[in-house]
Each structure stands twice: as C-alpha cells, then as structure tokens.
Amino acid sequence: MQDFKRAMRYFYRYLKRYWLGLGFVVIVTILSTYFQVKAPVYMGQAITELSRYLGEYMNPATHATASKTPFYHALEAMMVCFGLSAATMFISSFISSRISAQTSGQMRVGLFGKLQRMTIKYFDTHQDGKILSLFTSDLDNIFNAMNQAIFQLLSQLALFIGVIWMMFGQNVKLAWVTMASTPLAILIAWFVIVQARKNINKQQEATGEMNGYINEQINGEKIIITQGLQQASIAGFAPYNEKVKQATFKGQVYSGMLFPLMQGLSLLNLAIVIFFGSWLVVHDGMDKATGLGLIVVFVNYSQEYYQPITQITSIYNMLQLAITGAKRLSDVHDQAEEVNPANGHQLTTLQTGVQLEQVHFGYQPDKEILHGVDIKVKKGEMVALVGPTGSGKTTIMNLLNRFYDVTAGAVKFDGVDVRDFDLQSLRDHVGIVLQDSVLFTGTVADNIKFGRPEASDEDMIAAAQQANIHDFIVSLPEGYATKVNDESSVFSTGQKQLLSIARTILTNPAFLILDEATSNVDTVTEARIQAAMDNVIAGRTSFVIAHRLKTILGADKIVVLKDGQVIEEGSHEALVAEKGFYAELYHNQMVFE
Ligand SMILES: Nc1ncnc2c1ncn2[C@@H]1O[C@H](COP(=O)(O)OP(=O)(O)OP(=O)(O)O)[C@@H](O)[C@H]1O
C-alpha cells in the first residue's frame, strides 16, 4: 500500500499539469462508451423492426402498408453510434498518447536532472546497471502503462459500468442472468493472473541474474581469454539461461491461458443468455419481434460485458510493473541532493591555502575511516599524500572537493569551511585529475574544452601543449576534430590521462587535486605525464595522491597516512632521515623499480 501511495504521488507530480487534457480524455471516453453501449439498443430495435416488417409483409391484410422505414432508421442510428464511438475513441486515445509521451519525456528529464544534483554517495552505493535500468526499464514500463494500460483501464471501466447500466435499463432479469457468472470469471482471471505474475517475477529475477553474469564475463573477457576459460564461461552461462527459459515458459503458459479461458467463459455465458432470453420471451408474454430484438441486444451486451473483465486483468501486470517503476523513481526523487548553502561564499581565488582540521569521517556512521586528520597546504605549495592501500587517501580527496561532508572537524579554504561556499564556485576553482580518465562522446576539442566550452582555440592548444599531447593530436588525420567514442577510440590510457590533464589546465583551477595519474602506463608515457603534471602544478596550490614515490620527490611537503591517521609529515629528505614508515616505503620501492 505504501508503494502504491508513493507511485501515485509520483504520477500526480507529473500528471497534475495535464489535468485539463486528462479531464477531456475522461469525458470523451465516457462519451465514446455511451455510443458503444447505445449501439446494441439500436441493433435490437433494427431486428425488432425487421421482424415486424416481415410479419406485416407476409400478412395479406397489412402487406400494402408494411414499411421498412423504422428498420432503416434504427440501422442508421446504430451506424451513427458505432461511428461516433470509434471517432471519440480515436480522439481520446490520441490525446492520452500525447499526454503520456510528453509526461514520460518530462519524467526522463526530471530523472536525469535529479541524478545530476545527487551526492556522490548515491553513485558510490548504487551499481551503474541499476541506475541505467531506471531509464531503460522503469521509465519504459511507466510509459507503456500510461500509453496503453491507463487508457484501457479508463475505457474498460467506463464500458463495464455503461453495459451494466444499459442492461438494467433494457431488462432487469436478463441483466442478472448476464452478470451471474461474474464471480467465477473474476476468480479464474485472478488465479491465472497471480500465477502469471509469480512466474514473470521469477523470469525477471532470473534475467537479472543472467545479465549480471553476462556483465561480469564481458568485463573479465581479457582474463577469460588469457586463461583459456572460454568453455568454462559458456558452461557457467547454461544454468542461468535454463532458469530464464523455464520461468519464461511457465509465465507465458499462464499469460496465454487468460484469453482462451475468458473467451470460453464468455461464449458459455452467451449460450446461457440466449437460452434464458428465449425462455423469457416465451414466458413473459413478450411480442416475438420485441423479444427477438432483446435477445440480440443481450447477445451484444454479454460479449461487451466480458471484454472489460478480460482486458483489465490482462493489463494488471503492466500496471503492476508501472507502479513498481514509479515507486522506484519516487525513491530516487526523495534521495538527498548536494547541499548548497543559501548565499554561500564565493571562492574567487585562493589567498592563503587549504586546510584539514581534526577531520573525522566515515562512509557509514559506525565505521570511521579518518580519525582526526590535520593537513595544511599553503598557497602555491605542492603537498603529496602517501600511504598504504585503504589508508584513506582517496577519502581525503573526496572531502576536499566536498563529495562528502566531514563527520567532525572541518575542511577549510582560506580559513572558510567548505560547507559555507557556494558549491559551483568551489568546484569552479578546484581541478581534479582522477586515476581513470574519462573521455566523453564528441571531438578531442570538445573533450579538452569540456569544463570551459567558451575557451578559445588558442587557449585549448596552449593547454594541450602544456599537457604534452598537442603533437599527438595534430598527428591525427583530423587533429582536434577527431571523434572520440568507444568503438574507434584511438587513445591509450596514457593519452587519455594527458587529455584529461589538458582539460584541467584549461579550466585554470586555483587548487589542484591529482589522484595518482601515472598508474598503468609505460615508462616513456609516464615521463610525459610527469612532465605534464609538473606543468599543471607549477605556480598552483596542489594536492597529489601518489603511489610511486619518485613522482613526488619535489613536493614541498609529504604527508604519510596510515589507517586514517597522519603518522609522518615533512620533506622527502627529512622523512628519509627520520627512518620511519616513509623511509621504509621509499626504500622498498627503490628496490623494486
Ligand atoms: N564509497 C565508500 N563506501 C564505503 N567505504 C568506502 C568507500 N570508499 C572507500 N571506502 C573505505 O574507506 C577506506 C579508505 O579507502 P580509500 O579509497 O580512501 O583508500 P586509499 O588510501 O585511497 O586506497 P588506495 O591506495 O587503494 O586507492 C577503505 O577501507 C575503503 O574500504
């Protein structure tokens, strides 16, 4: 019920602006249903008039005056009703399709916008595939439901009520006879739909597991090939596939049962209606022509009556999926966003430096990672952070850029807490080069200008030159206009890093964070990256997270972190002379390199 409420809240949020259009759809649908249920009345009248005419025509006394006009009138009225019903149905379906297309477009924009405002924590704690499935699966389910199911639900409900209303207007006894089998029909439909749903759920779970396996195998393809594990990988796939196959089959069997069962029941009901109809005509002393017309009317109604029951149960699954999807999207919209203080300080340039003061932090409340860290980076200084894996280096970077907020203590820029800065101005002045350089679809130029699209080509080229990548770019046939995409990516890991360094140089940040940008590359590329780094660092306040100690020998200060605490601090020479943890790290690395 809670889920249902959340889903409804989500729909309301997007549909409320279309209240006029939706109101129109409801009215037109009711109108369409009215014509649909009125047509059988004229059909019955036509049969009555035809049979009267035939009776009069066959009777020599009335032969001359027998007229077909009432029959034609009834036929005309019937056709007008069918025509108007079809036309209004089309209008209603057209408007509701338009509303659902527009709404799902707005939902997509809303979701994408929300993701852009979310905290890094959300992305750290949710798998990419799951986030993507909000767009590919949940929004699709919602669109399908809005486009088909909601309109269907509305029109079928209207039809159901309309038919009952008309039936009682025509003949109360026959109306009860037509409706007598309803509990049985609902029971059967419900059983089938619940079974189908169970198996569809199993199918979705099995498909999710199979996709997980495929994803993992594709990501590990290089290892699989180098270890010759292709056959094992195929063998591992078989049970996942088998599970999907079984669940799909059962789900389809149950879903496929619904229509034949309901059709059978509807035909049985039809026979009962005809039987009782003829019985009524004989026993209630109705005149034959009226009785015949009445039977025709109820033959139509008994079929129209079953249509909503079948349709509504068959769209139940679609509605369920949409409700689940809407609930999930509603949850996303309720997620915390990055907190931007009202009238926050504007960081224009760095005056004195950056400081971590007694910083305590944990990703989870009960597991502290940093235990009172103090680090000071003076303006123009380069401070390097070293420490064993898991010691908290990347965590400190996350705090400096305000990806996360400290639990206690503070991160300060020029003595002002980062939490008091306007987020945009903070991010505008902090440049980051991450371990994994990401290139976006577009040209090389687009990628370098990513953070400053308005930059001139001269500035872009100067940045590329400083990043040691200009010569490579101009050696490409299309130079800076070379397209960057996954399929034909011509860039190595090292080149990607150089491009991302150029991107950072172009934004001219006051404070730089470099996260071990020299991993996974050969020594020549490493030297080029190092030179590019030196260029970008020169004259800037910077914070470097390094694994290879020889890249930070020139740092103004080296901070050694272990288990979330600063254990040593000083210049390279001073730390080596101290013969502590750093000295040991350094000597060990020198032996291996
Ligand atoms: N998003 C996260 N959620 C929960 N715990 C995390 C998260 N990121 C890191 N951690 C934990 O925080 C601790 C410090 O991790 P961090 O990435 O800061 O270390 P690091 O020194 O940068 O390591 P490495 O040198 O391997 O990159 C680790 O125990 C890690 O498991």
Task: Quickly describe the structure.
Its main location: membrane. The protein is built from 19 helices and twelve strands.
Note down, in words, how this protein is organized.
The chain is of the alpha/beta class and 593 residues long. The chain folds into two domains: 2-333, Up-down Bundle (ABC transporter transmembrane region fold), CATH 1.20.1560.10; 353-592, Rossmann fold (3-Layer(aba) Sandwich), CATH 3.40.50.300. 66% of the residues lie in helices and 10% in strands. It is built from 19 helices and twelve strands. It has helices spanning 2-15, 19-58, 69-117, 120-125, 128-170, 172-179, 182-219, 221-226, 230-283, 288-333, 393-400, 423-429, 444-448, 457-466, 470-475, 493-507, 523-537, 572-578, 581-592; strands at residues 353-361, 370-378, 382-386, 408-413, 416-417, 430-433, 442-443, 483-484, 511-515, 541-545, 557-562, 565-570. The strands form three sheets. Strands 6-9-10-3-11-12 form a six-stranded mixed β-sheet, sandwiched between helices. A four-stranded antiparallel β-sheet has the order 2-1-4-5, with helices on one face. A hairpin with a 2-residue loop joins strand 4 (408-413) and strand 5 (416-417). Helix 18 (572-578) packs across helix 19. The protein starts with a helix and ends with a helix. The mean pLDDT is 86. The site of adenosine-5'-triphosphate (ATP) has 11 residues, from helix 11.
